[in-house]
Amino acid sequence: MTQTAKEILRDVFGYTEFRGHQEETIAAALAGRDSLVLQPTGGGKSLCYQIPALLSDGVTLVVSPLIALMQDQVSALEQLGIDAAYLNSTLTAVQQRQVVERLESGQLQLLYVAPERLMQERTLELLQANRVCLIAIDEAHCVSQWGHDFREDYLRLGELRQHFPGVPRMALTATATMQVRAEIIERLELADPAQFVAGFDRSNIRYLVQSKLDAKRQLLDFLSAHRGDAGIVYCMSRKKTEATASWLAAEGFDALPYHAGLSAAIRSEHQRRFLRDDGVVIVATIAFGMGIDKPDVRFIAHLDLPKSMESYYQETGRAGRDGEPSTAWMVYGLQDVVRLRQMVDGSTANETHKRNERVKLDALLGWCEVTECRRRSLLAYFGDTLDEDCGNCDVCLTPPEVFDGLEVAQKILSAVYRTGQRFGAVHVIDVLLGKDNDKIRQHRHNELSVYGIGGELGQQQWRSILRQLVVLGLLSVDTAGYGAIQLTGKSGPLLRGEMDLPLRRDLLLARKAAKSKTKPKILAIAEEDRDLWEALRDCRKRLADENNVPPYVIFHDATLMQMATEKPQSPEDLLEISGVGQTKLDRYGPRFLEVVRLG
Ligand code: ADP
Ligand code: ZN
């Protein structure tokens, strides 16, 4: 009797419904058609090729750039009772021979392989001699030279069309833009592919952006709602990741640094801890994250700004792959704006490239300052729309106060002008505040008409306004020199009062917001079920260690949570729980039922 995709979904994976375009994507593959699958991270791309693999004769090849991930993916499949293996340079000769034997005997259902390995003559010959039913190309955007993860060894994958005529190829990616999409189709030589494009909204992620006042204090406030959760804190520099990690450790978090300057051994140990243990916080530069497939990362915190909306979306996308509530939190300030502008302007890239980088950076900075639903404007950047405000971002939760900023802006511009456009933000603000210090006296700025005209606001508020004016292009920062604030072509109309200038009053508000409003919806466990939940987590951790896999490979949080709430009493009850399929029921069911019974 032949099984249907739906039956496999239920019996093997333990899920009742397909998500998004999974069903159509599977049907296209089974019908032998090439396809391009575009889904946000966590959308469930892997099932799109795993289910056809189980329904077809022959082996499904999965091309993946990330050798480090293959092992986890294969062990996750093995836990489901699926025959899967990988071929890469980490295997010994004996292990490789065993994989080849399984392939030749026809039992192997999925074979993961790195692109450079796949394109070797002898690998191609080996595979051609066996029956390949589908080729899935994961992280397909790596073929795009304009994308951010370009990989030379992806370029040759177009040749697969000649090597495996008639075998459908499925390209999968979470990268959105039309340009990258077109490049994937062209370079992989997909033939009239069916395209399955899902929306980019990650509705389980709460977006919180605050202006930077006392970053440490703010981070601690934020993390207080996330004790015991796994998360990533991104920082700009290596030094800062180390300092932040030790400070967080002193504050009682299981925090570890990660950056390219650490030895390979330390890096892989920290990554292993993050994957295998519950509740580890990694403090990292952007060197960390690519290929981290951990589904239960509960928060991403940015202590420094990423360089574009694309990076932000990718980095925050690592939160909540399992669909459970998660938070993307970020602080930014004038200093970030200046530093990032300097980085772009000071780079040695050609002018066109720099111009692109500037446009991208400005989009991000503008987004930080938005006064409308943050999710809506994030999605708009990627050409996606949202019908209603999301109710799950800082703007929706704590609408910022907007005020008429014309007068205060004119004061800043005048101070910049009168001091000769040669000074940085700190000095300009000191002049406005009428501070008495050496620098002011030395330049006789206490004799200027603008001296002390800004007493109505505090230093933080002036910084906020200055930052907004820089982002709006009404002031600029001399990035080649010492960060002097200068007027721009747009300053004139402002000085003459010929424009409206709504600004956000984010400062004092942000401090309060950090304490009260940012508490995320944490995993929904009732108080009385907490003990059982913890006991289930312990049981999962023991099984994970026994099997040498990460805990989430045994069961996801959502599955354990449902167990804690519904307290299944029999194997039949357990099968009703999402994420429990037949194989896992047989293997682990008794242990978990025991915990519930004792619970
Ligand atoms: P992606 O590769 O798109 O980031 P994955 O394939 O890793 O996403 O899937 C993300 C999570 O969603 C996985 O834990 C997977 O088991 C789960 N998932 C996928 N499809 C379904 C479904 N139809 N119902 C419930 N959970 C699903
Ligand atoms: Zn919103």
User: First CA to last CA: what distance?
Assistant: 41 Å
Query: Biggest β-sheet, characterized?
Result: 7 strands, parallel
- Using the coordinates shown, work out and report the CATH topology of the largest domain: Rossmann fold
Summarize the amount of helix as a percent range. 40-55%
Strand order of the largest sheet: 3-4-2-5-6-1-7
Number of strands: 17
Can you tell me the CATH class of the largest domain?
Alpha Beta
Whole-angstrom Rg: 27 Å
The CATH superfamily label of the largest domain reads: P-loop containing nucleotide triphosphate hydrolases
Q: What is the name of the CATH architecture of the largest domain?
A: 3-Layer(aba) Sandwich
Runs in which pLDDT lies below 50 for 5 or more consecutive residues are: 509-521
Number of domains: 4
Give me the number of helical elements.
28
What overall form do the CA principal axes indicate?
globular
What ligand species are in this complex?
adenosine-5'-diphosphate, zinc ion
Structural class: alpha/beta
Beta percentage is 5-15%
| Average pLDDT over all residues | 91
Q: What is the topology?
A:
Blueprint: H1 5-13, H2 22-30, E1 35-38, H3 45-55, E2 59-63, H4 67-79, E3 84-87, H5 93-104, E4 110-113, H6 115-118, H7 121-128, E5 132-137, H8 160-163, E6 169-173, H9 178-187, E7 194-197, E8 205-211, H10 215-223, E9 230-234, H11 238-250, E10 255-258, H12 264-276, E11 281-284, E12 297-302, H13 309-316, E13 326-332, H14 334-346, H15 351-368, H16 374-381, H17 394-397, E14 401-404, H18 406-418, H19 425-433, H20 438-442, H21 459-471, E15 475-478, E16 484-487, H22 491-495, E17 502-505, H23 507-516, H24 530-547, H25 551-554, H26 557-566, H27 571-575, H28 582-598
Parallel strand pairs: 1-6, 1-7, 2-4, 2-5, 3-4, 5-6, 8-13, 9-11, 9-12, 10-11, 12-13
Antiparallel strand pairs: 14-17, 15-16
This protein binds adenosine-5'-diphosphate and zinc ion.
